């Protein structure tokens, strides 16, 4: 029996014969006579709890039925009498008792109705369709029905457990502890849970006791009454198989192959498929037909060793297998039991042996069907099915900024640019003669990306992913482009394409090999990969020949001494200028000024170009720039002089770094000491690091500099209402300035302030930073900060400060109005340091009126950011926001979102820029609303050290 | 064995579970052959008729219901199996009964409700 289904699958043509052949069982002798009385007897024992309608219905005998059949329908009451008489006494009595009980509570009408209902359906084996007339909605559950309870079960065992519950209920039915659950069910689309119908959760609990894989401890949840019906109405994704649709074969030699549905059996169990055969035209045991063929067949089911897909060719097959292996019946060839039509194999498959979902036929595969067949009429290849698939995906691939065209609906033919996406509705700005500039809402499924010949595109998905090229033709949703890499024409669906400027692969890695690898091709030949293509390389071998090589043709990669490559690389670009774009550990990414190329290079191998024409290492001995570890934030070093109109810059040198030259240990040291923040973390090591870590400045005796302490502790200077935090000192006429000087030991605090000023991370070009004297005395240098004054003076680039006390005062006066407003980048929301706060940021929509974006109706509204994630670089960034006032949700171009500046004391905010970027702070001073550039005292949250400091107001964004 | 009006409860692991297209009862094809469909035998005549079993039952169904007390069960009522034998039923059965059965139902004035949830009213 167990091979019934199998044989139906393996031996193809007898679509429905399998059952006939196999189901020859011995149970057939069991005849009706034997069964009927048995049934009858058992029925009389029926569960007392059950309604008696069916009991009566099934009790009556065949003979009786024959004569009375007509009457039953017409006159139920007569029949009642008859059947009643035939019941045995015990049963009858019970029924009577029960009927009495029930009828006591019922109105005569009700009783009458029940009677007619009952006896209309009572013919034993006659199928009546029961309540089929009742509309489904009248069957909705009521409060009188038992409840449904959801229970967690082990995923994969849902069905088994439902069966177990059934069996358990039957087994325990007449025991002392019967189960009282009414039903239980499971849905394939709700894995890991079953539903039990019962009056109480205790009953469910009781029923589940002892069943393996049921987890009542995870809760037995009541299903709300209005959700009960939907549990039974869930439709699995309707896998409609229609002739012409595409499927994949799940198992066997043809596993994964695309097939087309030719026909479907009446009950939908089996489908006839047409697919490209894989006939082995080079059979190993030649000409060995019959039995041995079969054996061979089983061994070749290994998908990896299967013969290639090839249309059936009578001549070829006959040549290899002999003329009598193939017979022809009309249009169909029969070969080894399989039938072939128009070159395709046609075979019936069980539904469960084919894959209906996510078929995603590729263009190549479909072409095989349309080209190869010849006899296949055009109508059979239904591109609409693939189109359908692409449409489903359309939503996920559209982005604001995409050029689209509408291909269906009343707006068909309209071109436009995606403005925003809300659910599956797109708003586009139409482009074209009469609609120009109009905003149109459209369903996402009726648009497709639009490309025109000449566009440069990149493939985002599919097997051609990462190919780039120039569009040569567009037909419907198929775009053909000339690949930059292979110079071949490639056709892809427009949904998988994106306009892109870049050329070539995203990576230069194919398989295990990378561009410029030295590879061994065979024992005699080695070569260098000089070009990578999608799945192959161009290799220049030692004989000067170039060849196209696939990864598997490479036997190994000769091991190079690492230094070889480095030298090579360094030599190549030596004396080249560039801009550091990013750093990661000891490696910097440098954009070369020539060649517009970004390379990775060890930091040790690059020098900073100083304005005086000299250069110095960015790291290690000789590096002076205290802040050199986060130069990624600073932009090109060459721009530095512009930033600091430095009153002290005698000789054109900013004392900050020009004078240092590695001699000012105070900040120069930062680059030399192990600094946890090195590597461009965006943190400023000078003070922040030192406040937490072994002090980088402490090499002169291990003393903690005074300033450092102050950043950590309730600030001794705060008493005056001003914080001597680093930026305070640099900007405000600092009444405390003398203090450090006088105080000696505390002089150091000015240092950080100073080195901050010199830093370009933020846009405040505070000349105040110039109080280099302060910086010079960096405590680290000497044994005591006080004593460092003198020794370090010379390092100030010639600036002689007779008394430290007066030095700070002068510059401080000057920089009052040099504060710069924070120029908010368009994608500030996406800044990594804000990511944890993104959803709490108070954000305002601004600037929309000017551009008439969304008609400006959201202007000035404050919003909650629900989601914002980076779009591809060449698209406008958008964020999903919720209007605070109306709770409306929509996407908004990120460039219209600006941070709300904190305006109240004790308000929480996040620092958007500057060295303390990303810190969460509380405003500790009542801001004066007049100026955005105002400095307010803030207190960092605990996790950021709880320090009090001053922050420019527009550097912060309030949080909800 | 415990209850007479129960259909045969098949092994859940059986690979040959099939659901009756008319009443959605689940049995193995063997059971359908030996006893037919306890609910619809009169009209479908599945017993000893493998061809008929193949056309009137299907292996493509979704969701399994253990109907323990059909008469009180809302689930059974919703599924319109409240008057049927206790047993395992499918929630959703793919396919329609053969045309002759549909014709027969029509001649008896019975509204045919396919169990593929194609018609919801």
Automatic annotation (TrEMBL), chain A:
Region (Disordered): 1-115, 284-306, 610-794
Pfam family, one: KOWx_SPT5
Keywords: mRNA processing, Nucleus, Transcription
Domain annotation Spt5 C-terminal: ranges: 651-811
Basic and acidic residues: compositionally biased ranges: 97-115
Organism field: Gymnopus androsaceus JB14
Subunit note: Component of the SPT4-SPT5 complex. Interacts with RNA polymerase II.
Domain annotation KOW: ranges: 240-267, 397-424, 450-477, 902-929
Protein's UniProt name: Transcription elongation factor SPT5
Function: The SPT4-SPT5 complex mediates both activation and inhibition of transcription elongation, and plays a role in pre-mRNA processing. This complex seems to be important for the stability of the RNA polymerase II elongation machinery on the chromatin template but not for the inherent ability of this machinery to translocate down the gene.
A single cellular component GO annotation: DSIF complex
Bias (Acidic residues): 20-35, 55-73
Protein localization: Nucleus
Biased composition (Polar residues): 626-647, 683-694, 705-714, 724-733, 785-794
From TrEMBL, chain B:
CDD domains for this protein: Spt4 (cd07973)
GO biological process per UniProt: regulation of DNA-templated transcription; transcription elongation-coupled chromatin remodeling
GO molecular function list: RNA polymerase II complex binding; translation elongation factor activity; zinc ion binding
Spt4/RpoE2 zinc finger domain segment(s): 17-94
GO cellular component: chromosome, centromeric region; DSIF complex
Principal location: nucleus
Subcellular location: Chromosome, Centromere; Nucleus
Keyword vocabulary terms for this entry: Centromere, Elongation factor, Metal-binding, Nucleus, Protein biosynthesis, Transcription, Zinc, Zinc-finger
Self-association state and partner proteins as the record states: Component of the SPT4-SPT5 complex. Interacts with RNA polymerase II.
Record-linked PANTHER family: SUPPRESSOR OF TY 4 (PTHR12882), TRANSCRIPTION ELONGATION FACTOR SPT4 (PTHR12882:SF1)
Record's function text: The SPT4-SPT5 complex mediates both activation and inhibition of transcription elongation, and plays a role in pre-mRNA processing. This complex seems to be important for the stability of the RNA polymerase II elongation machinery on the chromatin template but not for the inherent ability of this machinery to translocate down the gene.
UniProt family annotation: Belongs to the SPT4 family.
UniProt name for this protein: Transcription elongation factor SPT4
């Amino acid at each position: 029996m167990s091979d019934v289904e199998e044989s139906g699958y393996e031996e193809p043509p007898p679509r429905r014969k399998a059952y006939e052949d196999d189901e020859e069982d011995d149970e057939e002798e069991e005849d009706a006579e034997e069964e009927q009385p048995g049934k009858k007897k058992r029925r009389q024992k029926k569960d007392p709890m059950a309604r008696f309608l069916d009991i009566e219905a099934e009790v009556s005998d065949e003979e009786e039925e024959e004569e009375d059949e007509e009457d039953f329908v017409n006159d139920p009451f007569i029949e009642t009498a008859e059947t009643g008489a035939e019941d045995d006494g015990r049963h009858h009595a019970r029924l009577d008792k029960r009927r009495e009980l029930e009828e006591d509570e019922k109105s005569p009408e009700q009783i009458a109705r029940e009677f007619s209902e009952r006896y209309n359906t009572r013919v034993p084996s006659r199928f009546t369709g029961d309540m089929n007339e009742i509309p489904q909605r009248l069957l909705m559950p009521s409060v009188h029905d038992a409840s449904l309870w959801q229970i967690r079960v082990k995923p994969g065992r849902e069905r088994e457990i439902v069966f177990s519950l059934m069996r358990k209920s039957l087994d325990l039915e007449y025991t002392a502890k019967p189960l009282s659950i009414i039903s239980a069910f499971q849905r394939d689309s709700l894995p890991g849970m079953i539903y039990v119908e019962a009056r109480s959760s205790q009953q469910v609990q009781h029923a589940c006791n002892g069943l393996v894989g049921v987890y009542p401890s995870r809760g037995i949840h009541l299903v709300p009454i209005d959700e009960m019906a939907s549990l039974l109405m869930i439709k699995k994704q309707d896998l409609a198989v229609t002739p012409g649709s595409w499927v994949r074969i799940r198992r066997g030699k043809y596993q994964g192959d695309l097939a087309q549905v030719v026909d479907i059996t009446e009950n939908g169990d089996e489908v006839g498929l047409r697919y490209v055969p894989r006939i082995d035209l080079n059979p190993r045991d030649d000409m060995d037909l019959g039995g041995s063929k079969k054996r061979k067949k089983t061994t070749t089911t290994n998908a990896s060793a299967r013969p290639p897909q090839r249309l059936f060719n009578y001549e070829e097959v006959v040549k290899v297998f002999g003329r009598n292996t193939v017979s022809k019946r009309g249009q169909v060839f029969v070969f080894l039991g399989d039938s072939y039509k128009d070159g395709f194999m046609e075979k019936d498959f069980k539904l469960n042996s084919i894959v209906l979902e996510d078929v995603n036929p590729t263009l190549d595969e479909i072409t095989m069907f349309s080209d190869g067949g010849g006899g296949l009429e055009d109508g059979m290849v239904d591109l609409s099915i693939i189109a359908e698939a692409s449409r489903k995906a359309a939503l996920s691939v559209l982005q604001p900024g995409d050029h689209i065209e509408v291909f269906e609906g009343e707006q068909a033919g309209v071109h436009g640019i995606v403005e925003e996406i809300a659910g599956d509705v797109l708003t586009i700005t139409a482009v074209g003669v009469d609609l120009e500039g109009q905003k149109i809402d459209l369903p996402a499924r009726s648009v497709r990306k639009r490309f025109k010949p000449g566009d440069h595109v990149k493939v985002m998905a599919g097997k051609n992913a990462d190919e780039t090229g120039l569009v040569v033709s567009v037909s419907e949703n198929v775009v053909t482009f000339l690949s930059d890499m292979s110079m071949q024409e490639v056709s892809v669906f427009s949904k998988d394409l994106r306009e892109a400027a870049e050329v070539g692969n995203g990576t230069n890695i194919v398989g295990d090999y990378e561009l410029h690898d030295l590879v061994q091709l065979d024992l005699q030949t080695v070569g260098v990969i000089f070009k990578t293509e999608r799945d192959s390389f161009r290799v220049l071998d030692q004989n000067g020949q170039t060849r196209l090589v696939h990864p598997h043709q490479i036997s190994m990669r000769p091991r190079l001494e690492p230094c070889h490559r480095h030298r090579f690389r360094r030599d190549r670009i030596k004396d080249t200028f560039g801009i550091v774009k990013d750093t990661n550990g000891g490696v910097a990414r440098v954009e070369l000024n020539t060649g517009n190329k970004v390379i990775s290079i060890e930091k040790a191998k690059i020098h900073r170009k100083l304005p005086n024409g000299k250069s110095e290492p960015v790291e290690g001995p000789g590096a002076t720039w205290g802040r050199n570890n986060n130069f990624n934030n600073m932009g090109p070093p060459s721009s530095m002089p512009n930033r600091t109109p430095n009153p002290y810059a005698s000789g054109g040198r900013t004392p900050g770094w020009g004078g240092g030259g590695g001699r000012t240990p105070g900040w120069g040291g930062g680059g030399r000491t192990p600094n946890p923040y090195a590597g461009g973390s965006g943190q400023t090591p000078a003070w922040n690091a030192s406040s937490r870590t072994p002090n980088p400045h402490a090499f002169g005796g291990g003393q903690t500099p005074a300033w450092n302490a102050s950043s950590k502790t309730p600030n001794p200077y705060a008493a005056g209402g001003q914080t001597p935090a680093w930026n305070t000192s640099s900007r405000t006429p600092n009444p405390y300035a003398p203090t450090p000087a006088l105080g000696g030991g505390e002089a150091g605090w000015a240092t950080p302030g100073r080195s901050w000023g010199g830093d370009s991370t933020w846009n405040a070009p505070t000349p105040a930073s110039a109080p280099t004297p302060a910086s010079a005395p960096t405590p680290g240098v000497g044994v005591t900060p006080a004593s460092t004054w003198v020794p370090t003076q010379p390092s100030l680039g010639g600036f002689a400060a007779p008394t430290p006390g007066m030095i700070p005062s002068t510059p401080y006066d000057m920089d009052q109005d040099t504060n710069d407003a924070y120029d908010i980048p368009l994608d500030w929301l996406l800044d990594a340091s804000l990511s944890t706060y993104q959803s709490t940021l108070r954000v305002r929509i601004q600037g929309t009126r000017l551009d008439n974006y969304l008609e400006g109706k959201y202007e000035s509204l404050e919003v909650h950011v629900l989601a914002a994630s980076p779009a591809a670089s060449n698209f406008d960034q958008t964020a999903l926001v919720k209007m605070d006032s109306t709770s409306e949700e929509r996407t908004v171009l990120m460039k219209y979102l600006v941070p709300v500046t904190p305006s109240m004391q004790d308000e929480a905010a996040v620092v958007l820029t500057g060295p303390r970027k990303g810190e969460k702070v509380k405003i500790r001073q009542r801001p004066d609303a007049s100026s955005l550039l105002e400095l307010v005292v803030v207190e960092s949250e605990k996790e950021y050290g709880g320090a009090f400091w001053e922050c420019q107001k527009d550097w912060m964004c309030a949080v909800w | 064995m415990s209850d007479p009006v129960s259909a045969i409860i098949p092994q859940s692991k059986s690979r040959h579970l099939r659901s009756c297209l008319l009443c959605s009862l689940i049995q193995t094809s063997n059971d359908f052959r030996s006893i037919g469909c306890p609910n619809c035998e009169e009209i479908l005549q599945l017993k000893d008729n493998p061809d008929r079993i193949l056309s009137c039952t299907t292996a493509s169904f979704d969701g399994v219901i253990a109907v323990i007390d059909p008469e009180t069960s809302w689930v059974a009522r919703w599924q319109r199996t409240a008057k049927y034998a206790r047993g395992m039923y499918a929630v959703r059965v793919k396919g329609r009964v053969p045309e002759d059965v549909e014709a027969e139902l029509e001649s008896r004035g019975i509204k045919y409700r396919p169990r593929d949830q194609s018609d919801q009213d």
